[in-house]
Amino acid sequence: MRYDQKNSTVVSYSIERLKIDQLKNIRDFEFDLSGHRITGILGVNGIGKSTILHALACVYRPHDTASVEYNRLSDFFKTNPHANWQGSKFEVDIRSFELHANKPPSVDLKTVRYYKDSQKWSPKYVNRPKNESLFIGLEGIQTAGEDPTGYRFRNYKTIEDANEAEDLIRRDLAFILGRDYSKINTHVISRGSSQYEIEGLEWNSVTYSELSMGSGEKRVLKILKAIHHPKFDNGGLVLVDELDMLLHDLSFQRLIEVLIRKMASKQYKVKPLQFVFSTHRESVAKFTDRINICSLFQTPAKTISLPYVSPDVILGLTGRCEKPLEIYVEDDLAEDIVGDLVFKKDMIEFVQIARFGTWQNAFTIIASKVLQGIDISNAICVLDGDECNSEQERMSRFNAVLNGDDKQEQRRYAMGSIKNFKLLIEKTPDSPIKALPEYNHKKMFDSISFEHTDKMYRVQCCSKDIVTLDDWHDYYPELARRTNIKKVRDLVLHALSNSKYWQDYVRQIDDWLECKRVDLGLIARLANSDSAALIDKSD
Questions:
Q1: How far is CA 58 from CA 34, 115, 171, 263, in A?
Q2: Which residues, 6 or more positions from 295, have their beta carbon under 8 angstroms from its beta carbon?
Q3: C-alpha distances in angstroms, 167 versus 32, 61, 261?
Q4: How do 351-355 and 325-329 pair as beta strands?
Q5: Is 155 strand, coil or helix?
């Protein structure tokens, strides 16, 4: 952000979209960062997570200095005998916010392109948008105590960091690491005309410096000091490589909670502070509704961005599936429904079920398999039924991920791998209902005729008492609360599976499984199982 004295305006920026044509091993990659202020990037080693952070770190130039460490493209992409980086190209969409003293604020969106087609990168450093940014890599993980020359820091003077920001940092640090820190200190070492500083803390009546500090402790402190630094009071960009490095999973999740709370604070409502990190930690999926998540996957032709998908999906995309049939679903509710169908057809050894997250991922997953030449005849993605039900909408999605006139036959082929549940009550343009699948379950369950002596009748009464919810994802948790039955969803799904509505609801998936059961020669197997069950009953 900057202040324009002449025009009495305050200007701040946020990155809305990143597109990489070619950068290291990343090709034809695009990702939208506009949904949330925080973005997590996941992927296997070497796929390009750090490369994306390096590109973003070079988008801006800070205000008060000509350059900072890890701020120029040449800092990350050093010319060497094997790479001169010519032909590298990426672009960002940057939204600017101008707050005027005497008129309403204005918003603008522009695309800035970065490339190297000669000896130097363009645009020139001085022509970049001015905004605060900071990259925290892995180079500073080592503490002074782990430094072979750390003895240089042993004679220090202690200064307590006593101010409002340090108090916030101390409280955040205590929450993340589960320690009631009483002080944060700076230790100063004087050597001739030079001065050096190392970190220090006080906990449990023990004062200690970085010479005795844990690496994870030091890194979290560094991240917190960055986001609480006054230079980011008016927004900016903070990037952290391997955010989960050296952290227990609970501490990692607490750190993300702190970041979410910080980015949502009132001061950043108009002056956005963005935070982008890379991680290998799967528990980041817990925050899919509060942060952007980009799961990277690579095909021979391009690098694909998927909103969070499970490792099972990535295994399926690499062609390393242990079972002959693959069914991808949106969430755990769909997973339970499909799992029950698979169980009833006695096919659990033959079907791999994995969650793919948001419904848009279904088209990217199938397209990725097609682009890799993986046979998709034994794989389907199941949509919940509340989005993208028409053939026109689905073809439009495949046009975006399988583009080009030469892909027409592949797009038609891919269409057969998209299935959906059939909702009793479908979505309409003015529908206020959020989470239609759960709402449909309630309506179907409420319509079943139970005897008054049946235990499920009392569960149904509780369901009928749930008249409205802001978000129908809460239907099953609310029903569990009212009935005091933790696994009430299992009971409802069992009742639904025996109702007159269910066959239509699951027909597309059931028909596909039946065809595959025939293809795999499992008809006789199920018949034998049914015969054995009848013999057991007669005994």
A1: 19, 12, 32, 21
A2: 42, 43, 305, 306, 307, 308, 309, 314
A3: 35, 29, 16
A4: parallel
A5: coil
The pLDDT of residue 65 is 60
Closest alpha carbon to 334 in 304, 361, 294: 361
CB neighbourhood size of 82 (10 A):
5
Query: In this model, does residue 534 exceed pLDDT 50?
Result: no
Domains of the chain: 2-140+230-293 (3.40.50), 144-213 (no CATH), 309-424+504-519 (3.40.50), 436-500 (no CATH)
Q: How many angstroms separate the CA atoms of 115 and 283, rounded?
A: 35
8-state DSSP, 151:
G
At 243-265, the pLDDT tens digits run 999 899 999 999 999 999 998 88
What is the rounded distance in angstroms from the CA atom of residue 489 to the CA atom of residue 169?
Answer: 42
Residue 465's CB: how many other CB atoms inside 10 A?
A: 10
| Omega of the bond leading into 230 within 30 degrees of 0 (cis) | no
Residue with tokens 């080693």: 45
The answer to whether residues 421 and 335 touch, using CB atoms and an 8 Å cutoff, is no
Burial of 348 (0-12, 13-18, 19+ CB in 10 A): exposed
CA angle 298, 76, 217 (to 5 degrees): 90
DSSP string over 523-535: HHHHHHHHHHHHH
pTM: 0.69
Label residues 100-131 b or e (16+ Cβ within 10 Å = b): eeeeeeeeeeeebebbbeeeebeeeeeebbeb
Q: Largest alpha-carbon pair distance within the chain? A: 96
Distance CA 79, CA 69 (A): 17
Tokens at 529, concatenated: 């199982």
Residue-averaged pLDDT of the chain: 85
CA distance 360 to 283: 21
